[in-house]
Design goal:
Layout (H helix, E strand, L loop, with lengths): L6 H31 L23 H8 L2 H32 L5 H9 L10 H10 L6 H7 L4 H11 L4 H9 L4 H9 L4 H16 L3 H6 L8 H11 L4 H32 L5
Helix pairs in contact: 1-13, 2-13, 3-6, 3-7, 3-10, 3-12, 7-10, 8-9, 10-13, 12-13
């Protein structure tokens, strides 16, 4: 029979829960203020003390933002780019990670370290030659530039490789004996066993791409190509006195990634927790 926790252990656990609740409340407070402010009149947003209950509740703000701003175009462009980049990064990252984790070839470890070392190189150090290269290919001022820019990522390869190493090599060896190709092993055996890691990479990549501002700022000039981050920045410049609408647009920009993380958090936590566990 397991020993019952002592009074000191119970007190420590209660104290830990209290600290975590306070920390969670502090993290959620700005988001709650943003949501509440999106339902206020403009002259109520920055009142002191803070008015936590809107009176009256301005649901019309969520209609006006679609009329005054080109939200449909911004959301569509951001969704297209985010889905495409996420698909490409998950595909290329998982496939490259399979080669590094489950195949043997000369220089494999050195090549992996060299590739992972690119994570430490800031994008600002090579974004100018990268811009010149994409411009010479005629991809400047197109969504294709953003997709190609982020189609490959060393972090995804690292994350998937660490998870693949927790899968026993005996499964791959048995499949090779049965005549399955390396592509078949990756697709039919490794991928179905890697759902938590794939979900983690999907969420991380989608959120990062959705929130990207600098990449679209550099490559996208036409308004019909703007993503939601560029559009909201332009909207703030044009309607800087419409504080409630600015908050409404901010809520709409955060809502999709909040929902994705809410529904995928179980796989996300499982994928991060089991990454690096050896099989």
């Amino acid at each position: 029979m397991a020993a019952r926790p002592s009074a000191l252990q119970r007190s420590g656990r209660v104290l830990l829960y209290v600290v975590m609740i306070i920390a969670a409340a502090g993290i959620m407070l700005p988001f709650a203020w943003m949501v509440i402010s999106s339902l206020k009149l403009n002259n109520q947003v920055f009142t002191a003390p803070v008015q936590w209950i809107p009176d009256p509740v301005q649901w019309r703000n969520y209609f006006d933002i679609w009329v005054k701003a080109d939200m449909v175009t911004w959301v569509r462009n951001t969704l297209v780019v985010s889905v495409a980049v996420t698909f490409l990064q998950v595909l290329t990252g998982s496939f490259a990670a399979y080669g590094f984790a489950k195949m043997r070839f000369p220089g494999r470890d050195a090549l992996f370290l060299l590739y992972i070392g690119t994570i430490a190189v800031p994008w600002q150090s090579y974004m100018i030659p990268q811009f010149q290269m994409l411009s010479s290919w005629g991809l400047n001022n197109t969504l294709w530039a953003i997709m190609l820019l982020q189609a490959f990522g060393a972090f995804g390869v690292f994350l998937m490789k660490q998870y693949y190493e927790s899968i026993p090599d005996s499964l791959s060896e048995a499949a090779r004996i049965d005549g399955l190709s390396e592509y078949g092993i990756w697709w039919r055996i490794i991928m179905p066993l890697s759902v938590p890691a794939l979900a983690s990479l999907t969420i991380i990549t989608f959120v990062q791409t959705w929130n990207d501002y600098l990449g679209p700022l550099i490559y996208l000039r036409d308004r019909e190509l703007w993503t939601i981050q560029l559009g909201l920045q332009s909207f703030i410049g044009e309607y800087n006195a419409e504080h409630a609408l600015v908050m409404t647009g901010s809520v709409l920009s955060v809502l999709p990634i909040a929902l994705i993380f809410l529904f995928g958090q179980r796989y996300f936590i499982q994928g991060i927790a089991t990454t690096g566990v050896k099989g």
